[in-house]
Amino acid sequence: MDNTIIQYSDVEILRKELVVLKHVDFTLHSGEFVYFIGKVGSGKSSLLKTMYAEVPIESGSAAVFEFDLRKIKARKIHLLRRRIGIVFQDFQLLTDRTVHENLMFVLNATGWKDKVQKEERIIKVLTQVGMLKKSYKMPHELSGGEQQRIAIARALLNDPELILADEPTGNLDPETAVQIVEMLHKIASEQGAAVIMATHNLSFTESFPAKIYKCENKQLTAL
Asked: What predicted TM-score, i.e. pTM, was given to this entire model?
């Protein structure tokens, strides 16, 4: 059985008619952990955004799961995104809702109906990230590290096959950042989800080794 999740061949990405990346060849398989490294503005985020059809692909061939990103219809994008967990640098939690309400919002938005199943799922993902006792808290009552743990829990709700983490440690202190990276590695190894983490912090690649790709000079290069 082919366990390829992402297959990019000779892909070109534009932002505002400017070439961000070109001749991108990239393959990702189930359970793999991959780092995208590079300076701010090197194209890491744009590349990640193409994978959930937020940024269009200008040329080349690109598939995530069985979806052809060059041809995907707008009405099908939600089916792609339901299989992907996204972790942002700035958490992007709904500030006017509790942790529990943040997670329930996502389950309702992605088609969950059964009330008991929804509660069980929330308990499971909060337990995974060590935040079960904080479910009643508002985001502003949590530390940055706690908010990012909630963001990871949110990304896990639909049991994704692919997790995209865009500078997930950018707003965290060094000790907390290490815990977050360790957690993402654990998710990949224990759940079989593929993880792509964009970062400019090279120390993570030494502490938690994995395959590394560098965005530089409009190219994506395997190191």
From this structure: 0.94
